[in-house]
């Protein structure tokens, strides 16, 4: 389930970018 982890990390990165 590498794809799932990649999507999760991507979502976190997007959230951080949006927070800024």
Q: What key attributes describe this structure?
A:
1 helix; mainly alpha; 0% strand; 20 residues
| Major pleated sheet | none
Alpha carbon gyration radius: 9 Å
Uncertain segments are none
Sketch the topology as an H/E string, one letter per element: H
Distance between the termini: 30 Å
> Percentage of helical residues?
over 70%
Shape: rod-shaped
Number of E-state strands: 0
Broad structural category: mainly alpha
Average pLDDT confidence is 92
Tally of contiguous helical segments: 1
Estimate the strand proportion. under 5%
Short structural description:
The chain is mainly alpha-helical and 20 residues long.
Q: Could you walk me through the main structural features you see in this protein, from its secondary elements to its overall organization?
A:
The chain is an all-alpha fold. Helix content is 90%, strand content 0%. The protein contains 1 helix and no strands. The chain has one helix spanning 2-19. The longest helix has 18 residues, at 2-19. The chain is rod-shaped. It starts with a helix and ends with a helix. 0% of the residues are buried.
Architecture blueprint of SSEs:
Layout: H1 2-19
